[in-house]
Queue: 3 jobs
Job 1
Amino acid sequence: NAGVMQNPRHLVRRRGQEARLRCSPMKGHSHVYWYRQLPEEGLKFMVYLQKENIIDESGMPKERFSAEFPKEGPSILRIQQVVRGDSAAYFCASSPQEDGYTFGSGTRLTVV
Amino acid sequence: LAKTTQPISMDSYEGQEVNITCSHNNIATNDYITWYQQFPSQGPRFIIQGYKTKVTNEVASLFIPADRKSSTLSLPRVSLSDTAVYYCLVGNSGSARQLTFGSGTQLTVLP
């Protein structure tokens, strides 16, 4: 049973480009959470999704950021028109219900 | 959300017991205390969770005094591979939405 899979592990984007981060939850998990970790800081909650529904996006920046978790396929965190301040590690976690979650290894986004 | 305070860093030697204390003065009645471990370039990994008194599992013990305003993670006989950042989190029954990660404690185990 594979863990939470995130890809790519490393992503480099130029300012103004779009970044797409993917998260495949553990088998049987229908709840997905995205966190962002800036250098030397702890993780900050961004968004909580279930299949085809955004449950809580209180931690998402108001502009340029969006997330989805379609009926089929991985959850996607999309960042449009990236800026240098978006450089961070983005972690996904999944759970079978709203408890007992497992984190992926993260995607490190570097904006140049 | 209850705010937590923990030391920024700690050093220890292999074989020693390490105790990391976390303060959470405004913990709510229905909040649990959870500790995570994070290695470089990896996501956090659950270590232990408790509500009150003492909890022990195969990797650590968690001590929580009666007032629950602090907690202590105890790692017995640490090894070099225990070098990591340890986070103390306070939230309602483990809901990821309510978890607030502080800056954590960087534990460095020396040979």
Job 2
Amino acid sequence: QVQLVQSGAEVRKPGASVKVSCKASGYTFIHYYIHWVRQAPGQGLEWMGWINPNAGNTNYAQKFQGRVTMTRDTSVSTAYMELSSLRSDDTAVYYCEAYSPNSPFDYWGQGTLVTVSS
Amino acid sequence: DIVMAQSPLSLPVTLGQPASISCRPSQSLVHSDGDTYLNWYQQRPGQSPRRLIYQVSRRDSGVPDRFSGSGSGTDFTLKISRVEAEDVGVYYCMPGTHWLPNTFGQGTKLEIK
């Protein structure tokens, strides 16, 4: 069965960076884009960007340009999202999602809580 | 960026009654291939989101047929024909594309009256 398993919770100080991983299994990793979405406590969903695991190209939300880097390692079917210059308002649950825009394929990771606190 | 205007933001519904959520994007979601790409997501309390609908009206695997999507242009609707207790949560619309900057609607919180 398809699974996206994310890395565990992280605590960082303001100004630091965090790298979250998303390991895919049960399907061909390079066939579906990976999107990253975050959700601050009590807030709605916020789209951060995507990576095409096949070519490695990315598309980031303007809000995160210059602070976010999405990468992948096809040898271990894993996508990564690194966010730098962390601020307290980056405290959120970060999700990865693999989906097709035109077929019934949509899977989410369990979420990774990133807490930014001094 | 596209703005996805959802309404209502709060939706109290009696069990067994229908519910409807509107989503109005600030620009067309029609791709050059002629298809329109609009997703609906459900997020139950304490859970990861899941997609219910893609390409306006196509249901994802395992989604009950009481959920339906419709619309065109810049006016889309998610309908639940008869609300059940397990439908409680927050519903979001989002352009379902890889060629536009994506953004979620504000979310509609469905609760049982």
Job 3
Amino acid sequence: GIQVEQSPPDLILQEGANSTLRCNFSDSVNNLQWFHQNPWGQLINLFYIPSGTKQNGRLSATTVATERYSLLYISSSQTTDSGVYFCAVGESSASKIIFGSGTRLSIRP
Amino acid sequence: SAVISQKPSRDICQRGTSLTIQCQVDSQVTMMFWYRQQPGQSLTLIATANQGSEATYESGFVIDKFPISRPNLTFSTLTVSNMSPEDSSIYLCSVAESSGNTIYFGEGSWLTVV
């Protein structure tokens, strides 16, 4: 099956800093999503991005499907950005998507 | 996106008992899923809840341990049977939006088995 690796596993930054989170996957995918899990466990869908680039406020994501990686950029970090960021991939629709191990981001005031 | 409500949000359960988690969606959805997240771990798909038929379970999960019901397009339940401390996890209900590509999660049910 598809393998998903995220890096770095942990990231500690000061408020206002920028960060780049990476997701590598082992095979071709037609579905790739980024999620943020806040400290209370709630999972929020950030992007559906099987290819190309999308931006939403301070967050943006780029997926280079031919090279099998995706990047999530967070600019001007805020303490509310803290939590775990997951990349999830699948071969087709939302069924059978596989989650990476996540990047734990801590933003210090 | 759909609004997904789960109950209970949190519970402490005795070893050997069973607990049923409910998931209610504010609109009809075709695809509905149940995930488990063990402490400090990523999410693992338990099963796809199929409306009007038996759920489709992933490798490592069986119906006797995790029976699932899906009586209609807005509601599903997951039962965790004969619980042990290893079942302490967050259990999450999720749905796919109409295109079938993007998934959304409920707030999760935090179970602790003692």
